[in-house]
Design brief:
The complex is a heterotrimer of chains A (289), B (322) and C (72). With 289 residues, chain A is α+β, with helices and mostly antiparallel strands. Chain A folds into 2 domains: 83 residues, 2-Layer Sandwich (Gyrase A, domain 2); 188 residues, Cyclophilin (Beta Barrel). Chain A is 29% helix and 27% strand. Chain A contains 7 helices and 14 strands. In chain A, a hairpin with a 3-residue loop joins strand 1 and strand 2. Chain C has a single domain, classed as RNA polymerase II/Efflux pump adaptor protein, barrel-sandwich hybrid domain (OB fold (Dihydrolipoamide Acetyltransferase, E2P)). In chain C, strand 4 and strand 5 form a beta hairpin.
Chain lengths: 289, 322, 72
């Protein structure tokens, strides 16, 4: 449900959580990111930082500069100023990532989990089955067939949570229970309706079926994309996973190691919610690649 | 300016308020858990309250000074000794090149702090010297202190003999029990009336599974309203599951039926509800508690929590130093 | 010389390396606690014979300052 009026909820003495709705709906994230952008432009001195999430936004504010009530009033004004979510436009970078689907590394990880923790069907087979897909090949076509929208970052620094923009490519996957104790760095996985990339080898609960050889996190800042921060992504970025072979994966991995890899980023586009929604209207959601 | 002879259990460089402005990339603020003791230490040696210093956890380090300086030891009593002689706490002390400061295990409280006149001078990461060791960021090479490292400290005079007024210091509980203030929300409407009553009347035990990422609590099960039990499936299958949302620092995060207080190095978002949040002025109590300690929660309003913060900030100022 | 080896930190008992009757030398590791995912070894200060062991491997949530091993 998209709430008629956003809810302003307190988080202790310094945080406000703004809930736009309670479902996985891109529209809610567009509103959260639109508000984050408007806050930045307004140069509100009471707001220290914001963190948009799927259907909500967390605000860290300075109680010495603004009260919780006044912050709520200002946020309502900014939200009203955004107008209908259709009017929202955001600068949005697009990343092309060479991606090895059905890769040997995540397969070995799942086999390790099966042997040590709980027997489990190989994740791509499991995900294909529960989504009514023909086989793992179709899973690859469907998962890689859309751009992904970076809705938020978190849980681990630099870890992006992404949603499929093309409704024909929406699939879902339950999480592991219990969770895995490790995941290969660069793994691409799915939990619920969101896709994530593991920036380092952390424990995790998403279904895993692909891997990228490119760092999305670089404490050494070896590539120009990390000049601003050691994390590659910001909310509002988009990602296209380009299926490649394990050989191509290893080639790119070597380029990364040598420091010669060049990130494929498209940086001139502006994402228009109206144009996006008009395009979605033309599609038949039941079509599958 | 000092060499690490033994690192202690987990001793890290922290500054206050920590790493701010990167929450939307998943970076927690880190910083000292007991910022009350930390800030007083800095003020004692003549630093800004937020300058970088050391946080020692459970067992303190032994360090050898390579030049003269002024330090202050605050927080939990780790029996600090300078060249074998007991070093007074809550006081600025002159140290000379070649002297050794040795600290051991704390008997009362969990975290001790060492401030150095001039402040620790390691390269800042994303605007802060605080250590976030899970990600290898900040501090000394991204991690806790290691034996043999030489830690740089900026040069500054500092005046020995300054004292923190006794009634301006935190009083660490000696009976293993604490009253912890909490503000209801953000997700308090997911818990039913009986659940709220139960939470606020239970003696919760701090589990041995506790660290700067989160403090796990042992106690009774929670009970929920329809918000938790009748929701869209994409929220998740457990009553405490919610569509992934940002987590306030200090949130009491309900992972299934296990409450975990998210603290300085905790996750910035996730898929579980936060029915209550510990306000910033109460964090020092979390920082000084040990596994086995009992927490009794006291509900306060946002206004009351903000008043506590204002009061604490006023105490962490030069007016507390004589 | 009797020695009472106390736990230095609150935590879980990860390993117990001695039994009553064992002969130990100064510096031998008697038991290892775990707190914040860090191992904290506890050593004998002096040599002697282990008289009593008051903790068990796998024991969770022991207090700091507890007499864990007695050496006579």
């Amino acid at each position: 449900m998209i709430y008629k009026e956003p809810r302003f909820l307190p988080g202790g003495d310094r945080y406000m959580l703004i809930e736009f709705g309670n479902e996985m709906n891109l529209e809610l994230n567009f509103m959260a990111q639109g508000l984050a952008s408007a806050i930045e432009k307004s140069r509100n001195t009471g707001v220290i930082e914001t963190a948009p999430c799927f259907a909500s936004m967390l605000i860290h504010y300075d109680p010495d500069k603004i009260s919780f009530k006044d912050l709520g009033k200002e946020m309502q004004t900014l939200i009203d100023g955004l107008g209908p979510s259709d009017d929202i436009e955001l600068d949005s970078r697009l990343f092309y990532f060479p991606t090895c689907y059905l890769d040997p590394w995540t397969k070995a990880c799942v086999e390790d989990y099966s042997a040590k923790i709980k027997p489990k069907k190989w994740d791509p087979e499991f995900v294909a089955e529960i989504n009514g897909l023909k086989d793992v090949q179709q899973l690859v076509r469907v998962h890689s067939g859309t751009e992904y929208w970076v809705a938020s970052l978190g849980f681990w620094p630099g870890l992006p949570f992404m949603m499929a923009l093309d409704p024909r490519c929406v699939i879902t996957a339950p999480k592991y229970n219990p969770a895995r104790t490790w995941t290969p760095q660069g793994t691409v996985g799915m939990g619920g309706a969101s896709t994530a990339i593991y920036p380092v080898a952390t424990p995790g609960g998403y279904q895993i079926f692909a891997r990228i050889p490119i760092p999305i996190w670089d404490t050494e800042k070896r590539f120009p994309q990390f000049e601003r921060s050691i994390c590659l992504f910001q909310p509002g970025d988009r990602v296209k996973f380009v299926p490649v072979s394990p050989q191509e994966f290893e080639f790119v991995e070597a380029e990364v190691k040598a420091g010669t890899y060049v990130y494929n980023v498209v940086e001139y586009q502006r994402f228009s919610v109206r144009n996006y929604k008009n395009w979605v209207k033309t599609l038949n959601k039941n079509d599958r690649f | 300016m000092f060499e690490v002879i033994t690192p202690g259990l987990e001793t890290t460089i922290q500054d206050y308020p920590g790493r701010i402005g990167f929450w939307n990339q998943g970076f927690p603020p880190s910083g000292p858990m007991d910022s009350w003791s930390f800030r007083l230490g800095n003020l004692l040696v003549g630093n800004d309250a937020g300058a970088a210093g050391l946080e020692a956890q459970y067992i303190g380090p032994t360090v050898k000074f390579q030049r003269d300086g002024v330090i202050a030891v605050t927080g939990a009593d780790m029996q600090a000794k300078l060249d074998g002689q007991p070093l007074p706490m809550w006081e600025s002390v002159a140290v000379k090149a070649g002297q050794t400061l040795a600290m051991t295990a704390s008997k009362v409280g969990a975290r001790g702090y060492i401030a150095f006149a001039g402040g620790i001078d390691t390269p800042p990461w994303l605007g802060s010297r605080s250590t976030f060791h899970q990600a290898g960021v900040g501090g000394m090479e991204g991690h806790a202190l290691k034996k043999g490292q030489v830690i740089p400290v900026a040069k500054a005079k500092g005046t020995p003999g300054k004292k923190a007024k006794p009634d301006c210091r935190p009083v660490i509980s000696t009976d293993k029990s604490w009253t912890i203030e909490v503000v209801p929300g953000p997700n308090d409407d997911w818990i039913d009336e009986a659940g709220h009553k139960r939470f606020l009347s239970t003696d919760w035990k701090l589990s041995a599974k506790n660290a700067r990422t989160g403090f796990r609590l042992d106690g009774p099960d929670w009970t929920f309203t329809e918000k938790a039990t009748k929701k869209a499936p994409e929220n998740g299958s457990e009553p405490s599951n919610i569509i992934d949302q940002g987590y306030p620092m200090g949130a009491i995060n309900l992972s299934g039926q296990t409450p975990i207080i998210l603290v300085n190095d905790g996750p910035s978002m996730g898929g579980f509800i936060n029915p209550y949040t510990v306000p910033s002025a109460t964090f020092w109590k979390l920082g000084q508690s040990k596994p086995g300690d009992i927490y009794r929660f006291k509900s306060v309003t946002v206004d009351e929590a903000q008043a506590l913060r204002k009061k604490l900030n006023a105490v962490c100022s030069p007016s507390s130093i004589i | 010389m009797a020695e009472k080896v106390e736990t230095m930190v609150p935590g879980n008992v990860w390993k117990v390396l001695v039994n009553p009757g064992d002969k130990v030398s100064a510096g031998d590791t008697l038991f290892i606690l775990e707190v914040m995912k860090t191992e904290v070894p506890h050593m004998a200060g002096e040599g002697g014979t282990v008289k009593a062991v008051h903790i068990k491997e796998g024991q969770e949530g022991v207090d700091a300052g507890l007499v864990a091993v007695e050496i006579g």
